[in-house]
């Protein structure tokens, strides 16, 4: 599968400026079909060709077997009953397809003046009609076997017309990838993909012309913690099949091994163990290898011998040790194993642009052939610009290979989320400065296809990339029958968080715009909410990818309930407008019931490292419902419920550190938290509302952290006067209202606590010292009604 340059009879070089795909319309045959990834050049050349029941395919020994097999499958899916493969054209069928190297004489002749790119994985396609559109020739020429395969993947998207009268669009295409390496790295924490999920992904990568899959699941013990140990035979058999299936889709299976948590760099026995592991993979057919050294410490050694060899722990010493190992693998293993690709590595400093002693050693001493991965300016960067990529390449002394942590959802801010927004905020022109990009997907493999589809489009032709067009094409890939329902669902799962409070993609932008317009008098929200209500059923009926439906199941259930709550909210407003108190109250109760049920749906236990309540349109739907509640309260003669705690004075029994003070739990930011010292039995946190108010509900949000001790077995107390010193005294004090919560605090746990109070306290019931930490405590009440 290794790319090779082929001499051409048609020796034409594509202009370097040929960057944007040209979608040209022709009056006689309609618009050129939308092809994804966007080709470097596509243009109308003549009428479409009718596809009949028989097709002749001209293929020789130089034709890529995977491309030929794919072509047969594509033709049969389009209704062709007889596919006749011959070494020479016979002219016995109206449609003849020539498949193979672009310089094969019959293909070169059929391509005519079509430009053939002199580029690895390149292809040229010419669809030529004769006698109107009833007779025709299709030339599919590749610069190498991968180019042939990708030419067929393009042809798959050129079929137009009704199911009963199919045509191939009359076009010429010259195409090649802008980036050499394009694909994914299974590098997340949490439950690894299953074997069947990986097989399905590899076939999908072929469809979107991605050529790289890096096997690096953090929770595979033989990849990281037990890297010295050989794989069991059953696992080896699975890996063997993955390597073969990847090759059949022109995907480079890259095996990653991550020894940094325990390796003794100076130990010859450890290096021998690493070599044995690599050799076992090479024997399976693996030719691409990666050694990630991310998420490890360079402030300590794993053995005393390394201090003698490389010096005291630190940036420069760590880099010297790593370079010694990496150069050894590159020069003494890969260079001596035929067909091997250059080694890939992930540096310990992978997410910034700061020049350090570590990077200086890497830059000046790491073998130039080794590819260095970089995540951008942060672990999850809000954007990646050409200038940043240029700086990163200078820092590491080579074009970097971007590990983009999207759409991965293995961290706390992504708890309960599917990340379905299209790829965005990555600048056109990055292909000039990168060795490639790999996406780090979600634990939900099939649901990751949405983002990966758009990312593959960008990787192939970053200068022609259009996020909205690509997103729509992703929806059509999953459901040609009903892409609009999927796009609506994608919008409700659009938020892409970072490790900070500000996401790099906003939640539900389409719904948010309609809600904002609704409050200004635009009536279109009602129809959109009806579509939201119907979308889950439509998606389940039209999407054939059962794995995607399984991944999305809980989110589809939540969508149906939240849409129902919005519809009931609109009914509440209609009843208010009509002055119908009974109907408004009934619709309000239905809205609250549906919202409560939606808020109880959780992500699948065990799938993600961080679990939580399923998030759908949050920050938009819940805000809309709160505004409906306020309007109904006003209509009913009540003061609207508000969050009385935000920004008020908060205290706790002790502080763990200055950055985790009690005030962090009333600052409106769900990404930070308060923490007590952990030295006290029954620690407490409280807020002073400033005045006695009528409290109705309290929401406790757990700390945003995958590994924190969850708040559980705690009292929530409300009092008009300051609390006494101990929990037992507080529980017997007149006027104090309390609620005991034995389950862990969710995000959020909503507690009904009707009380007339000024002080609200969360008090753990533990009998041993323990931290108390929470992201936020919201106290909802009516401040003017006491």
From TrEMBL:
<dbReference type="InterPro" id="IPR000421">
    <property type="entry name" value="FA58C"/>
</dbReference>
<dbReference type="InterPro" id="IPR015882">
    <property type="entry name" value="HEX_bac_N"/>
</dbReference>
<feature type="signal peptide">
    <location>
        <begin position="1"/>
        <end position="26"/>
    </location>
</feature>
<dbReference type="Pfam" id="PF07555">
    <property type="entry name" value="NAGidase"/>
</dbReference>
<protein>
    <submittedName>
        <fullName>Hyaluronoglucosaminidase</fullName>
        <ecNumber>3.2.1.35</ecNumber>
    </submittedName>
</protein>
<dbReference type="InterPro" id="IPR017853">
    <property type="entry name" value="GH"/>
</dbReference>
<keyword id="KW-0732">Signal</keyword>
<keyword id="KW-0326">Glycosidase</keyword>
<dbReference type="InterPro" id="IPR006585">
    <property type="entry name" value="FTP1"/>
</dbReference>
<dbReference type="InterPro" id="IPR051822">
    <property type="entry name" value="Glycosyl_Hydrolase_84"/>
</dbReference>
<dbReference type="InterPro" id="IPR008979">
    <property type="entry name" value="Galactose-bd-like_sf"/>
</dbReference>
<feature type="domain" description="GH84">
    <location>
        <begin position="180"/>
        <end position="463"/>
    </location>
</feature>
<dbReference type="Pfam" id="PF21774">
    <property type="entry name" value="NagJ_C"/>
</dbReference>
<keyword id="KW-1015">Disulfide bond</keyword>
<dbReference type="InterPro" id="IPR029018">
    <property type="entry name" value="Hex-like_dom2"/>
</dbReference>
<dbReference type="Pfam" id="PF02838">
    <property type="entry name" value="Glyco_hydro_20b"/>
</dbReference>
<keyword id="KW-0479">Metal-binding</keyword>
<dbReference type="GO" id="GO:0004415">
    <property type="term" value="F:hyalurononglucosaminidase activity"/>
</dbReference>
<feature type="domain" description="F5/8 type C">
    <location>
        <begin position="627"/>
        <end position="782"/>
    </location>
</feature>
<feature type="active site" description="Proton donor">
    <location>
        <position position="295"/>
    </location>
</feature>
<comment type="similarity">
    <text>Belongs to the glycosyl hydrolase 84 family.</text>
</comment>
<dbReference type="Pfam" id="PF22633">
    <property type="entry name" value="F5_F8_type_C_2"/>
</dbReference>
<dbReference type="InterPro" id="IPR011496">
    <property type="entry name" value="O-GlcNAcase_cat"/>
</dbReference>
<dbReference type="InterPro" id="IPR049019">
    <property type="entry name" value="NagJ-like_helical"/>
</dbReference>
<keyword id="KW-0378">Hydrolase</keyword>
<keyword id="KW-0106">Calcium</keyword>
